[in-house]
Amino acid sequence: MYKTWPSYYRSLPGALADELVKRDAEGATREELAKLQGGIRNMKVGMLDGDIDKGYISVGTGISLIHDIKPVSAIIDTLTADLD
After folding, report:
1. pLDDT tens digits for 19-66?
2. Cβ(35)–Cβ(29) under 8 Å?
3. Helix pair 15-25, 30-37: axis angle to 10 deg
4. Beta-sheet strands, E only, within the chain
5. In sequence order, which residues have a C-beta less than 8 Å from that of residue 25 and are 6 or more positions away?
6. Beta bridge partners of 8
7. Largest CA distance in the chain
8. Alpha-carbon torsion 36, 45, 18, 2, what sign?
9. Which phi and psi angles does 57 have, rounded to 5°?
């Protein structure tokens, strides 16, 4: 988790996210982290423009439940297995 103003957030790894973690570990203030984070502007850069080096992709707590990437057909097969 990375500090923001006024609370915490989670994001996918990327250059900006890594820098925020580094600065947080070095003792940066919340204000310094908020300025570096860039608020909604850098969230747009990451989430809509797809640039995770200059922006970040904010995620919820459910992200920790993802352990592998599967084809959609495999997920549907798993979800519908008991329906047969």
Report:
1. 888 898 899 998 898 899 888 899 999 999 999 889 988 887 777 777
2. no
3. 170
4. 2-3, 8-11, 58-59
5. none
6. 3
7. 56
8. positive
9. -115, 105
The two three-digit tokens of residue 77, written as one number:
């097969």
Which pair of tokens denotes residue 60?
């919820």
The Cα–Cα gap between 77 and 34 comes to 43
How many residues would you count in the chain? 84
Token couple for 42: 């850098």
CA distances 56 to 34, 74, 77, 80, Å, are: 13, 29, 33, 35
Residues pairing with 3 in the sheet: 8
User: CA 7, 10, 11, 16 torsion: positive or negative?
Assistant: positive
Q: Other CB atoms closer than 10 Å to residue 15's CB: what's the count? A: 13
Helix (H, G, I), strand (E, B) or coil at 48: coil
The answer on pLDDT for 69 being more than 80 is yes
